[in-house]
Amino acid sequence: MLMQFLREPGSSLAYYKRQAEGTDELTPLLRQIISWSVFAALCLLLLSCTSHVDSRVIPGSFTKGELTKAAASGDVKRVEALLQAGANINENMSSHEHDYLTPLIAAIAKHQEATALYLVRNGALLYPTYQGHRPQELAYEVFGESSEVTRSIRKLQGGN
């Protein structure tokens, strides 16, 4: 009885048989099902893409200080995205004329070793001072002499 139903006009089996013969177009129901399936597939694709959107930054769409905040919080992926979008690796967030609160100094001050190392390896300036201390001195105090950040800064400055 089921096979007889499936062979009747309007059933999907009858549709596929007629389509193979080239004698039938899509039924309104199948057209609706296919359009909803395509719509659902597109929605799922878009949803899967949005899980990574927060780590991307549109060029020029960031605010001053955003890189320093990301560095201080230790968000290396966000720091990388902001730099790729054109953020200034040496932005100064200090309100004092002769102080430089750069993303590197903020990362070191907040004990974010991986972020500090990323900034050093990607060209952060090593000579600005914050409250009289340079990044190398701060890294030595925070991470110690044997830390990779301290060694990388020393190496870039021509030391051993």
Structural overview:
By secondary structure, the chain is mostly helical. It has two domains: 2-51, no CATH class; 57-156, Ankyrin repeat-containing domain (Serine Threonine Protein Phosphatase 5, Tetratricopeptide repeat, Alpha Horseshoe). Helices cover 56% and strands 0% of the residues. It has nine helices and no strands. The protein has helices at 2-7, 12-21, 28-50, 66-73, 76-84, 103-109, 113-121, 135-143, 148-156. α4 (66-73) runs antiparallel to α5 (76-84), α4 runs parallel beside α6 (103-109) and α6 (103-109) packs parallel to α8. It is elongated, with a radius of gyration of 30 Å. The N and C termini lie far apart (87 Å). Mean pLDDT is 77; it is low at 1-6 and 50-55.
What descriptive keywords fit this protein?
160 residues; mainly alpha; Serine Threonine Protein Phosphatase 5, Tetratricopeptide repeat; 2 domains; disordered N terminus
Topology, element by element:
Elements: H1 2-7, H2 12-21, H3 28-50, H4 66-73, H5 76-84, H6 103-109, H7 113-121, H8 135-143, H9 148-156
Helix pairs in contact: 4-5, 4-6, 6-7, 6-8, 7-9, 8-9
Would you kindly provide a brief summary of this structure?
The chain has 160 residues and is mostly helical. Helix content is 56%, strand content 0%. The protein folds into two domains: 2-51, no CATH class; 57-156, Ankyrin repeat-containing domain (Serine Threonine Protein Phosphatase 5, Tetratricopeptide repeat, Alpha Horseshoe), CATH 1.25.40.
